[in-house]
Amino acid sequence: MTDVPGTPGTADPGTTGAGGERRTSETLYYARRNPKLLIGASIVLLLLGIGLIGPLFIDHGPNQYIGPQSTPPSGEYWLGTTSFGQDVWAQFVHGLRSTFLTGTLGGGIAFLIGTTVGFVAGYKGGIVDEILNMLTNVVLVLPGMVVLIVAVAYLDVRGLVVQALFIGLTSWPWAARAVRSQTLSLASRDYVDLARLSGRRTWRIITSELAPNMSSYLVMSFILLFGGAVLIAAGLDFIGLGPAGGVSLGLMLESAVAWSALQLGLWWWFIPPGAGITLLVGSMYILNVGLDEVFNPKLREL
Amino acid sequence: MTLRVNDLKVHYRTLRGDVHALDGVDFELADGEIMGLAGESGCGKTTLGKSLIRLDGRMRHVGGTVELDGEELPIADDRAMVPFRYHRVSLIPQYAMSALNPTRKIGRMIDELLRSRGVRPRKVADELRRRLELVGLEPDVLGRYPIELSGGMKQRVVMVMSTLLDPSLLIADEATSALDVSTQRSVVESLVGFRDRGYVKSMIFVTHDISLVHQMADTVMVMYAGRIAEKASTRTIIEAPRHPYTRMLIGALPEVGTTTSDTRLEGIPGTPPGLLDPPVGCRFRARCPLASEECLRTPPLTEVAPGHRVACWKTGA
């Protein structure tokens, strides 16, 4: 999410004839001293690590009925078991993994489409803007969930990737609108005008003049799209259109609700997935604020 | 002769019709000439400046030609103009404060600009440092971000950047309006220095500020409502203007060169005419104290003395 094209951090080294050699070390210097960035990044990385490495240490499937039913957390079952005797910890680590995948892929696709449409529409203006804006508005007013249900229900292959693809293809419009309006205001600045004057290509101006000045905005969009994709995936999982035989934090949450974990007091069933999603999206937000302070020279503090 | 503009007409397209922002502008700019371009708001100064480098989307080239060093500028063709920009014609924008990308270090931005112009940054690196020193900047500004510089420093960076490729024509559009008076002076001096060293061949300096023009310009062109009212050497314009508009414009200023004045300064009553449907004849007629019957016909721009051209029927009087 941080590799927004043209962000100052990704400066091509060695091409600067005059100044800017200390670029990387300078970014690192500020990055290391920013508590928000450090806290956010460590939580996200921790969760990612759990999702990536955790499943390797568990020798049974997340949906296997292996233990006693409805036991609270213990030394053997770290997060207890469900009312069917499934290991909640195993479900959690596998769920975290697929949640990251859905979020990254679904959010990523939506982000790519949304920002591209937004930048081109906002920068080019005129007839291009009209057409892209119309397209955006059409997709925006489509009842996304219904389209998803219909599309996913008729698909033969039903996996995480397909689910993420469909989420990505339907959730980009607001990002496009947001990026477009930002672009409209930035495109009238003098430095964009000067760049235009120098006859640089449209995409060069977008990546070097426009995107870096709204990088925090872009990262923010990605994080919200990521969170949105996770939640939409959870919704789809709930109505039985999730990946066949899979597991995700959303699926855990919904099955906990479906099997009355709340009423039965099985808090270890619904708190981990809920906390997992909250923690993930929340720490990504903090990370974003931190990144903004690192990359935007105006917000830097010594 | 660096620049020759023949009967240039540029209109703004609006829903209610064309706004005749430039309506037949004719002038020449000699080698090494710094021309001050003065006039009220809306008289077409900025439009003229923009027309010479880049027409924006609403502007339409209706007629006339622009010749730079004997070569015609394809001003109506945005693409064809690209090779001329920065190499032959360059611009210092109105607000240098916002002319620098806040997320780019200055050195990197200049490199990018050079590369987009097909120039290897290394080839001009020494020259760049020399010129920065010339305007009183340390070469280490190249490693800084725009917010680390003061307004005057940014302005000077932009000046160096715009003139780095030795353009024939430099357009400075209100380049000093956002600066305080002492900074204005140093900026103006640097600009004159650039001309003296041959970094730029000639310059059009768009401004409201006649006293600033007096300091630096060789000639002054006064525009009114999309037309040229008068063009002459700075001295002539200040001391012996012929066009009634120029006279009133100069009269509305605290007198250049003196510190006290007995008489109350007079403004020019009325407002410039709308250019959506410009009046026939002399455009200054409605506000002119000398206006008479003959002013219903458009006065030609005639040379009343060598290098002094006026568009008024009353110049003989």
Question: Strand content of the residues of chain B, in percent?
Answer: 15-25%
Mean of all residue-level pLDDT scores of chain A: 79
| The CATH homology group name of the domain at 3-76 and 204-256 and 271-316 in chain B | P-loop containing nucleotide triphosphate hydrolases
Number of helices of chain A: 13
CATH topology-level name of chain A = MetI-like fold
Q: For the residues shown, what is the average pLDDT of chain B? A: 85
Distance between the termini of chain A: 26 Å
Query: Stretches of chain B where pLDDT falls below 50 for ≥5 residues?
Result: none
Order of helices and strands of chain B: EEEHEEHEHHHEHEHEEHHEE
Strand content of chain A: under 5%
What's the quaternary structure here? Answer: heterodimer
Task: For the record, give the distance between the C-alpha atoms at the N and C termini of chain B, rounded to a whole number.
Answer: 32 Å
**What radius of gyration of chain A results from the CA coordinates?**
22 Å
Number of strands of chain A: 0
Q: Can you tell me the CATH class of the domain at 3-76 and 204-256 and 271-316 in chain B? A: Alpha Beta
CATH architecture of chain A: Orthogonal Bundle
Percent helix range of chain B: 25-40%
GO molecular function (chain B): ATP binding; ATP hydrolysis activity
Pfam family, one (chain B): ABC_tran
InterPro entries (chain B): AAA+_ATPase, ABC_transporter-like_ATP-bd, ABC_transporter-like_CS, Oligopep_ABC_C, P-loop_NTPase
Domain ABC transporter (chain B): 3-250
Q: In words, what does this structure look like?
A:
- The complex is a heterodimer of chains A (302) and B (317).
- Chain A has helices at residues 23-32, 35-53, 88-124, 126-141, 144-154, 160-170, 173-186, 190-197, 202-210, 215-238, 249-258, 261-264, 267-295.
- Chain A has 13 helices and no strands.
- Helices cover 67% and strands 0% of the residues of chain A.
- Chain A has a single domain, classed as MetI-like (MetI-like fold, Orthogonal Bundle), CATH 1.10.3720.10.
- With 302 residues, chain A is an all-alpha fold.
- Chain A is globular and about 70 Å long.
- Chain B has 317 residues and is of the alpha/beta class.
- Chain B is built from 9 helices and 12 strands.
- Chain B has helices at residues 45-51, 78-81, 106-116, 121-134, 151-163, 181-196, 210-216, 234-239, 244-251; strands spanning 3-14, 17-29, 34-38, 59-68, 71-72, 89-92, 169-173, 202-206, 219-224, 227-233, 302-305, 308-310.
- In chain B, the strands form 2 sheets. Chain B has an 8-stranded mixed sheet with strand order 6-7-8-3-9-10-12-11, with helices on both faces.
- In chain B, helix 5 (151-163) runs parallel beside helix 6.
- Chain B is globular and about 65 Å long.
- Chains A and B meet through helix 8 and helix 9 of A and helix 3 and helix 4 of B.
